[in-house]
Specification:
Length: 102
Amino acid sequence: MVTAAWLPKVLAAGGAVLALSLPVAAGAQTVPAYPGGNPPQVMSENLSREVPTRVLGESITRSSGGDTLPVTGGDIAGMVAVGAGAIATGAVLVRRSRARTA
């Protein structure tokens, strides 16, 4: 028999999520004016240095095995094995949890 004891918990969690998701003003917006009058002025300096730009070319040599594609993907067999293991573990856990409640 399912009871409604979980309803207050769900409502409290929903209220907390709603309260935390409301937009609030940033704390930096309420900072008072600069204490002591006007803030100090920073004078900028323009520093430049002439550096000659040299672009060096790059030579590319083709290897002798040009008929095959490079391997760029991951280990598909390993990823499939991990996924199958996760599905099997989940199935076992669901089966065990259903066996206890029946």
